Here is the input.
Amino acid sequence: MTPSTETLTAERILEATEEVLRRHGPAKATVVDVARALGVSHGSVYRHFRTKAALREAVTKRWLDRTSASLTDVAAEARDPEARLRDWLAALFTAKRRKAGDDPELFATYLVLTGENVEAVGAHITDLTGQLTRIIRDGADTGAFTATDPATTARAVFHATARFHDPGYAQDWDQPDIEAQFEAVVDLVVRGLRA
Amino acid sequence: MTPSTETLTAERILEATEEVLRRHGPAKATVVDVARALGVSHGSVYRHFRTKAALREAVTKRWLDRTSASLTDVAAEARDPEARLRDWLAALFTAKRRKAGDDPELFATYLVLTGENVEAVGAHITDLTGQLTRIIRDGADTGAFTATDPATTARAVFHATARFHDPGYAQDWDQPDIEAQFEAVVDLVVRGLRA
DNA sequence: CAGCTGACAGATTTCAATATCTGTCAGCTG
DNA sequence: CAGCTGACAGATATTGAAATCTGTCAGCTG
Here is the structure.
């Protein structure tokens, strides 16, 4: 809407795209809308992103990366691996649940985007299971956990806790006993890891 | 299509409805189609089912009950609870995976139906976790498992293995290493249950 | 007269015409 | 002349009128 003297960068386009997605939703957000929000012609947007799909993918990646970043600290700490694993899983659940609860419409939008960008989601999951692998390997090293193949075990832990981070289950995250369900699964998984 | 001299029963209507759903898919299957398939007027169908939604719900329940029935035997056997649990989970996974793989279109149809009938799905899940509770309680009684609250533990096991029975994950069930993923999660869960 | 039919009102879906969008590119502009 | 514009072709989405469907019920039929 507002023309600007600032140079048009990929970054500014991504911010405008997020805003347009927030306003119009994934079905109605168009490249023309993004250009209008930036006060440029839509041809200029295509100078920075080859296709609309590429633009949406970039937005999706940014969003997923922001989620991962908030967890890396927990994964990297030098503490008791069991407590670290519990904290990491709780942090992941809390982060996802907050995103889903705070702005359900925006969350639904990102649910559509992740559905469109399976590859980006795959990279995100690889990142997350990598963080888990680190915690589990540390646990195996200190003797707290049994794990012949930390990477495989990490993926099993990730799959076993899917109910509490997979956006497809977001509808269940406001059940009154969801915390108890989370505790029960984490307890089961942690017991399964112990040496 | 073919008129019949047989009396019109709920059973016959349900069979015809399954056939119509198979043929036309969930979006295009109409009550008029079902009536046509039975050679009656659609008014007659409404004599047995108050609404189209009720008819679809009945079809959904039948389908879910057929799945449950194939597992009750495994749950009720008098054998080593750990082996029984592994067999039960494997049987559930195999049954779902076969349904998804054999006729993907029909499976997609039932995915829509289960989405429409959350209540029926809830009853189905209650049934399945009930079967799991029995196995786990047996394990706790024989001393093979630790479980202060078998029902809660059963639900945790069900949630932890969701990737291998929740139809939402059907798209992942033809990954080459899906069996290894299943083994890893089941091993983790079984270790978590052991006393 | 129990069970079925078929006409009907209102809701939903389909379809085709119209409008908008995506992606390209020749040419304009600072 | 690097970066942007705006017109354009083909693809996609929107719209509103017509067709079909859902659910009801008075009356037919065996």
Observations:
- The radius of gyration of chain B is 20 Å.
- Residues 52-76 of chain B form the longest helix (25 residues).
